[in-house]
Every structure is written in structure tokens, then in C-alpha cells.
Write a structure and sequence with these properties.
The protein is α/β, with parallel strands linked by helices. It folds into two domains: 9-208 and 329-390, Rossmann fold; 236-315, 2-Layer Sandwich (formyl-coa transferase, domain 3), CATH 3.30.1540. 39% of the residues lie in helices and 14% in strands. The chain is built from 18 helices and 13 strands. The protein has helices spanning 18-28, 57-62, 76-87, 100-103, 108-112, 139-146, 148-151, 167-191, 200-209, 214-217, 250-260, 273-278, 280-294, 299-308, 319-323, 326-331, 372-378, 385-390, and strands spanning 9-12, 32-37, 51-52, 55-56, 66-70, 91-94, 119-124, 194-199, 236-237, 242-245, 313-315, 334-339, 343-348. The strands form four sheets. A six-stranded parallel β-sheet has the order 5-2-1-6-7-8, sandwiched between helices. A three-stranded antiparallel β-sheet has the order 9-10-11, covered by helices on one side.
């Protein structure tokens, strides 16, 4: 058995990042995935960011483990092919704007008639209802509207800032993957198939409010604390780089100070978490002394001193530096392979490790339509492949 999702069949009609990565996580865990793409350009994610041979790094990461069929959904026969795929599937994922799949004849109500046990996942930007339901929703739009950008304002820099990666898409992907797994679990318990509706906005708001909307959660708070308890966190410059340390518990504060040779951490006004909360100015003064000392040390010196005191700390690493990190190598976190189109690749293995049902990276991300013929043959349409291609139904 390969992975906990072994035997689960998924049809992936999603594009870009949120939907494809959610499905790729299922593929990593053993699901059999058919990715449906339009002929010509295919999934727009193939054209975003760094690319080699027409395969972008993002597409390679979020579509691994899948097979690709290129189908023209503007043609009746193309839609019929997808209906046949979905009729035999466990999961169907799409991330069109509300109303598009209905026009394509692939709505939940339509395909449920063929497959009542189907778990159908609809991912949208702003949700299926409300005045913004039909707005275009790219990642930075949702970051701004959902509170992620506001949460980046802190310390002396109170200007909202975007997170410099597609955080909203990835938060949505993680949420969708968990929700699909939960729906499959419910189905195994005899509760049948269902329609999951997930918006990027709702995923991001849930993410933000967990720790960055304290005064909005506790409506009776006195407002003396910032809504985000991480608001004033910042990196600590050293002589040759940056580090971060987390002075949270009493032991953490003492260990950080001892690690870099700063005294005064046992003074009554900063010795306990209650005292530090009551005397924020005194605690800030202590941290300024720590930062001044760190700035005179190399990154290696500061980290070694804190680690000797078992204080939570870490150096700031780039992805390239992470690749050579001894801990990352010891974990076997990154795997090298050769993609038949894009060439040499390095990517993380699946993050969760299952002892009883081991997961693995699986096959390479497919080229556009790489498996069209094989999938059509499996659908019993092998004798029509040439005619369908000539009619522009598949590619």
C-alpha cells in the first residue's frame, strides 16, 4: 500500500496554486489524480515564475504525482469526457469563479447524478455568496482584504505589507486538503458524498484570527495589548547576518540573556512573564541590551551561546543555504530528481511521515496532456483518440 490515500481517485480541474497544491498533497499521500487542463496553454500555473523547458518550478511542485489530460471544455464531447472521469472518482476539485462550472455542465448537482458518493470541492476567492462573490481574487487581493497585510504592520513600521509569497493561496490549499480528507472520512463512516465550499477569504480570515485579532475575538478586552501578540517581533542583526530568538517563557528569557552575556534578566520587573507583561518598558530595555550585544557577535557565536543555554533561536537562512544545512540533510527533507522536461530538480519530500502507510513524492509533474491517450483508453475511448484529437476535443 502506498500512502494513506491509496485507492482514492481524484479529478483535478483546478488551476494556479490553491487547488493544485491541495490535490498534490493528496497525491503525495497515495491518491490517484487526473489533472484536466485546457489544450494550448494548459494550467496558467505552468507559466508563473522560474521555469525550465516550459515547466515552472511552482507547477512542478504543486502538480507532482498527477497525470494530465488536455480536454477542451468548450466542446460537448470534452465535457462528456470529464463527466466520465468524475463518475468513477472519489473527489472532484475545481476553483473557477462561481457560476462557471454551471455553464460548463459540471456543477455539483449535475455530476452528483452520476456519482452520489462524490466529494466535490469548490474553491473560490470570495465565496459563493455575497456582493464580492464574482470578484477576481488573486493572492495579493485576498492578503490585503483578509487581514494578512495588516498583520505585517508592527514595531516602528506601521505600514501594512504583503507577505512576499502566495500565502493566501497556500493557506487555502492546506485548508482544502484537510477538508477533503475530513469529507472522505465522513463518507467512510456512512455519511455519503457532499459538496465542500471553501473561499480563499474565509481560509485567510481563520488563519489571521487565530493569533492576530485578539481584541476582535475578545470583545470585552481593554485594548491595552495589540491584537497580534507577534506585532513587534523582528529579526536580530549580527555582524554577518540575522538571527531570531523567542523570549517567551521565563527560562527562554534567562537562556537568551545568559547565552549572549547580558545580565539583569533576574530583576523583579522582568524575571517572570507576569512581571514582563506589567512592565513592558523594562522588558523592552532588557531586549535592547540583548540586541546591542548580538550586533557585536557573528551569527555562529550568537546561536552557539543561546543553544548552549537551550534557548529557542535560529539563524535566518535562504532556500539555498537551507539545502546545505546539516539538520535538513539528516532529516532527508529535500529530494533530488530529474524531470524529463525541466531537468534536475530539488524539492521537499511530503512533510507528514506515516509509519503504517508511508507516503512518497511519486511521479514527476506531468507535461500538458502527457497522459491523454492512456486516460482515454482507460475510459474505453481508445478507438476514438485520433478522431477526438482531430476535432479539437483533446490534445
Amino acid at each position: 500500500m502506498r500512502g494513506p490515500m491509496d485507492g482514492v481517485k481524484v479529478v483535478d480541474l483546478s488551476i494556479a496554486l490553491a487547488g493544485p497544491w491541495a490535490v498534490s498533497m493528496l497525491a503525495d499521500q497515495g491518491a490517484s489524480v487526473v489533472k484536466v487542463e485546457p489544450p494550448g496553454l494548459g494550467d496558467i500555473g505552468r507559466w508563473v515564475g522560474v521555469a525550465v523547458g516550459g515547466i515552472s518550478a511552482m507547477a512542478a511542485m504543486v502538480n507532482r504525482g498527477k497525470r494530465s489530460i488536455a480536454v477542451n471544455l468548450q466542446k460537448d464531447e470534452g465535457r462528456a469526457i470529464v463527466r466520465k472521469l468524475v463518475a468513477d472518482a472519489d473527489v472532484f476539485v475545481q476553483n473557477f469563479r462561481p457560476g462557471v462550472v454551471e455553464k460548463l455542465g459540471l456543477s455539483y448537482d449535475t455530476v452528483r447524478a452520476d456519482n452520489p458518493d462524490l466529494v466535490y470541492c469548490s474553491i473560490s476567492g470570495f465565496g459563493p455568496d455575497g456582493p464580492y462573490a464574482h470578484k477576481s481574487a488573486y493572492d495579493p487581493v485576498v492578503q490585503a482584504y483578509g487581514g494578512l497585510a495588516f498583520a505585517q504592520a508592527g514595531g516602528t513600521e506601521m505600514e501594512p505589507k504583503l507577505i512576499r509569497h502566495t500565502a493566501a493561496d497556500k493557506i487555502t490549499a492546506l485548508t482544502a486538503s484537510q477538508a477533503i480528507s475530513a469529507a472522505l472520512f465522513a463518507r467512510e463512516r456512512g455519511r455519503g458524498g457532499q459538496h465542500l465550499k471553501l473561499s480563499m477569504l474565509e481560509a485567510v480570515v481563520n488563519f489571521v484570527w487565530a493569533d492576530a485579532a485578539g481584541n476582535e475575538v475578545l470583545l470585552d478586552s481593554d485594548g491595552s495589548q495589540p491584537s497580534s501578540f507577534s506585532r513587534d517581533q523582528k529579526l536580530w542583526p549580527t555582524k554577518d547576518g540575522y538571527i531570531i530568538a523567542a523570549p517567551v517563557s521565563d527560562g527562554d528569557v534567562a537562556g537568551i540573556c545568559r547565552g549572549v552575556g547580558v545580565d539583569g534578566y533576574d530583576a523583579p520587573e522582568v524575571a517572570t512573564i507576569v512581571a514582563r507583561r506589567t512592565n513592558p518598558e523594562a522588558f523592552s530595555a532588557l531586549l535592547r541590551r540583548v540586541l546591542e550585544k548580538v550586533s557585536t557577535m557573528t551569527t555562529a557565536e550568537a546561536i552557539a551561546g543561546m543553544e548552549a543555554e537551550k534557548a529557542p533561536c535560529g539563524a535566518v537562512l535562504s532556500p539555498a543555504e537551507l539545502s546545505d544545512d546539516p539538520h535538513v540533510r539528516a532529516l532527508g527533507m529535500l529530494e533530488d530528481s530529474v524531470h524529463p522536461i525541466a531537468g534536475r530538480m530539488r524539492q521537499p519530500r511530503p512533510a507528514a511521515r506515516f509509519e503504517g502507510t508511508p507516503s512518497e513524492t511519486g511521479r514527476h509533474a506531468p507535461g500538458l496532456g502527457e497522459h491523454t491517450d492512456a486516460i482515454l483508453a482507460e475510459l474505453g475511448m481508445g478507438d476514438r483518440i485520433d478522431a477526438l484529437r482531430e476535432a479539437g476535443v483533446v490534445a
